[in-house]
C-alpha cells in the first residue's frame, strides 16, 4: 500500500524562539524525497520537528504541506497536530502500553474520526504492508526493539500522512538490530509517496536513509546536498568531524593554498580565492623523522591523542600549520612500530593528490 499522494511536498520557513535560542530554517521536501536533518546537540533539530508537528507555534514564517497551509505567523494560522496529516515516529516509539499493536496502529485513524471497524481494517492493512500482521494481538511490552520500530512506523503511516517525521528512528536499537532495521526502513521509506524528514545524529543512518542531507548548527542551515557531496566536501568543522575528514580554510592560488591558521598546503586541483581543503585521515602518513621523497605537504607536530578506530588507530596531531591540527589513521602495527605517545613529536605528510580543494 502506498500512502498519501500529495500534490506538493513540504514547503516551510520555520522561525521559532526558545529562550535565547532561535531557529531560522527554510526546509522544503519534495513528495517521495527523504531528507535527513543533522546537527550537533542543541542545534534545533527537535525544535524543528516539534514545530512541523504543531507542538510549537511559529513566531515567524509559514508551513505548507501538500498545498495546505498548516501554519502562518502573519495570519496567526496554527492547525493542531491532528489536522496536519503528519505521521511522527518518536525516538523511543511511545507505543501505548495498555493497547494491542492493532489498536496502537488504529489510534491515529480513530482520532481522525474514522469509525472503529474501518480504523482497525486500515491498521491491519498497514501491519500486513510492513510484514508484521502476526503482531496485531501483541502488547508493546512483548515486542523486540526492531518489532517496536516497525509498529511505530505502521502507526505513523496509518493516518495516511503527507509528511512522515522520524526522530532518531534507530537510536533505541542495539548495533546488530540496527543494521538490519536500517536496511528495512530504507526500503519502507522508498515506498512512501509523501515527504519524509529523518532527524538523526548518526551520519551512517543519514547517508543510508536519505536522498538529501540538511545540516543545521545553532538553528541555522550550514550545508545541504546529496550525501555523497556533503561527505566529500564538508563546509564546517562539525560536518568534517561527522564524516571523518580533515578540513581547513584558506586562500588558493593555483595548487597552493595559504591556510587561515598559517602555513601552506598543496592541493590536487588549481583554484583561485577563498577555499576549503579536505583530506582523509587514512591519506596521512606519520614518521618519526622528516620524510624524504615525493610528498609535498610535510608538517611537524605533537601527538595530541590516540583513539582506536575500527581495526586501526586515529592519531590527533596538533601544532601543524600554525595552531591547526589534523587526524591521521594508521594501523595498529604502524602505531607499535612508531611507538607514538601523547605529547611526543611526529612528522605528518599527505600527498597533494589526496587533498581536495573547493570554493568556500
Ligand atoms: N522550552 C525551552 N525553553 C528554552 N530553551 C529551549 C527550550 N527547548 C529547547 N530549548 C533550547 O533550544 C535549543 C535547541 O534545542 P533542541 O532540543 O531543538 O536541539 P537538538 O538539536 O534537538 O538537540 P539534541 O540533539 O540534543 O536533541 C537548545 O539550546 C535548548 O536549550
Relevant terms:
five-stranded antiparallel sheet, alpha+beta, elongated, 9 helices, binds adenosine-5'-triphosphate, 360 residues, 2 domains, Rossmann fold, OB fold (Dihydrolipoamide Acetyltransferase, E2P), single chain
| Strand-pairing-aware structural class | alpha+beta
| Rg | 24 Å
**Main pleated-sheet profile:** 6 strands, mixed
Q: What share of the residues lie within helices?
A: 25-40%
Domain ABC transporter: 5-243
Keywords: ATP-binding, Cell membrane, Ion transport, Iron, Iron transport, Membrane, Molybdenum, Nucleotide-binding, Transport
Domain Mop: 292-359
GO molecular function: ATP binding
What does this structure look like?
The chain has nine helices and 19 strands. With 360 residues, it is an alpha+beta fold. It has two domains: 10-238, Rossmann fold (3-Layer(aba) Sandwich), CATH 3.40.50; 244-359, RNA polymerase II/Efflux pump adaptor protein, barrel-sandwich hybrid domain (OB fold (Dihydrolipoamide Acetyltransferase, E2P)), CATH 2.40.50. It has a six-stranded mixed sheet, sandwiched between helices. Strands 2-1-4-5-6 form a five-stranded antiparallel sheet, with helices on one face. It has a five-stranded antiparallel sheet with strand order 14-18-15-16-17. A hairpin with a 2-residue loop joins strand 10 (212-217) and strand 11 (220-225). The two termini are 45 Å apart. Adenosine-5'-triphosphate (ATP) binds next to helix 1. InterPro entries: AAA+_ATPase (IPR003593), ABC_SmlMolc_Importer (IPR050093), ABC_transporter-like_ATP-bd (IPR003439), ABC_transporter-like_CS (IPR017871), ABC_transpr_FbpC (IPR015853), Mo/tungstate-bd_C_term_dom (IPR008995), Mop_domain (IPR004606), P-loop_NTPase (IPR027417). Keywords: ATP-binding, Cell membrane, Ion transport, Iron, Iron transport, Membrane, Molybdenum, Nucleotide-binding, Transport. GO terms for molecular function: ATP binding. Residues 5-243 form the ABC transporter domain.
